[in-house]
Amino acid sequence: MKGGFSSPGDYIYFKSQVPLHKIPIGTKQWRYYDFGPKVVPPLICIPGTAGTADVYYKQIMALSMKGYRVISIDIPHVWNNYEWLQAFEKFLDFIDVHRVHLYGTSLGGFLALLFAQHRPRRVKSLVLSNTFLETKYFAAAMPWAPVVSWTPSFLLKRYVLTGIMSGPHEPFIADSVDFVVAQVETLSREDLASRLTLTNDDASIGPLMLSDSLITIIDTKDKCAIPQQLKDEVSERFPGARRADIKSGGDFPFLSRPDEINLHLKLHLRRVGVEAREDLVPGTPKASDDDDGGSGGGGSGEPKDDREDTDDAPNGDRSKSNRGAPSSNDSQPPLVPESDDSPNPDDQPLDGTTTKGGSPLEGFSEIMVISLLHLLVNFFVINYQQLPVGLLTLYIINKHHPMILM
């Protein structure tokens, strides 16, 4: 990890544009971002143990600009699964959202599954990333869980940070780790204690009423804090779910591989019937019928390249010849030197002799002199009916020159 951390420029811009909401609901304090057209059913992002609402800032910015509504939350101080269900349901009632699409990573994915199991009428779809189905693995790895609520803050932070894979990383993965470590430093002792308690609370995910076709599983294939065995159990539980494996991304692919994650989130939202409203995004021109409401994605579900194809330029910008003919700007010959072995008609002498080794303007100067001589002869003949002796001598010498232009 880096010795010092400075906030990324896009995160600074995000903070300047997207307001952070802090509201008490019952006995719980909620901290969340809510951005995008309010008429669109929201995608609610739930972070893991080390995350905050800020870790999904790349998803908030990218998806909201495409007409989706994204809500990113902090996990409040809840100390058991039942308390989480009650608190999250009250939060949804407060923001006036009845049915939701949930995106959860690590502990957030487990909490999303828990809510879908016990409040099936409120969950329309799920996106799960690097998550698990039961907590017994973490309870066995943390025998001091019963005293976690009395543990000092610096020990809790150290325990959480040791769970993040250290060592050499790709630059983007290293940056994502640095960002999350900085977020952990902002968490209070109660924040960390409650999240670790949830991770160790005896619970497992039972059958869901939600169809597998409404679930997307996004897992990274490299090392992360969630063992591969636990991630495989999620895939086996939902065999009909859409899978989107990412070759690398570490624990936080939403930060290290945001373009891939955002693409999969948009594809999921389209598939489950969420219609983006890009026309409601301030400062964005209304999309034409050929444009797509996703992140530059086409109607087929694949991303659409925003760059224009030169072959699709208007007819007025193309020549009347076949497609691909050079435009008016390309009509000039290329500025490439000609080979000495390829004769150019413009370089040939005007008297038909070779000029190789001579001045290329030699023929041009000769014809100019002869033409001028011819004009002077005509002038004196017409006006004075006679010629000066010197001029007459030159005329007689050159009158049979083959290149005199009449």
Characterization of the model:
The chain is 36% helix and 10% strand. The protein has 406 residues and is α/β, with parallel strands linked by helices. It folds into two domains: 9-280, Rossmann fold, CATH 3.40.50.1820; 345-398, no CATH class. An eight-stranded mixed sheet has the order 1-2-4-3-5-6-7-8, sandwiched between helices. A hairpin with a 2-residue loop joins strand 1 and strand 2. The termini are far apart.
Give short descriptive properties of this protein.
alpha/beta; 8 strands; Rossmann fold; globular; 36% helix; disordered C terminus; 2 domains; eight-stranded mixed β-sheet; single chain; 406 residues; 10% strand; 13 helices
List the helices and strands and how they pair.
Elements: H1 9-17, E1 20-25, E2 28-35, E3 43-46, H2 57-64, E4 70-73, H3 81-94, E5 100-105, H4 107-118, E6 123-129, H5 136-141, H6 153-162, H7 171-184, H8 189-200, E7 215-217, H9 228-237, E8 242-243, H10 253-256, H11 258-271, H12 362-384, H13 389-398
Architecture per CATH nomenclature, i.e. the level-2 architecture of the largest domain: 3-Layer(aba) Sandwich
Global mean pLDDT = 78
- The total count of helices amounts to 13
CATH fold annotation of the largest domain: Rossmann fold
The helical percent reads 25-40%
This entry's quaternary arrangement is: single chain
Task: Give the termini distance in whole angstroms.
Answer: 86 Å
> Count the strands?
8
Main sheet: strand order:
1-2-4-3-5-6-7-8
Shape: globular
Helices and strands, in order, run as: HEEEHEHEHEHHHHEHEHHHH
- Class by alpha and beta content: alpha/beta
Low-confidence stretches: 287-365, 391-406
What is the CA-atom radius of gyration, in angstroms?
A: 37 Å
Largest sheet: 8 strands, mixed
* Level-1 CATH class name of the largest domain: Alpha Beta
In CATH, the homologous superfamily of the largest domain goes by the name Alpha/Beta hydrolase fold, catalytic domain
Q: How many domains, as an integer?
A: 2
Strand content: 5-15%
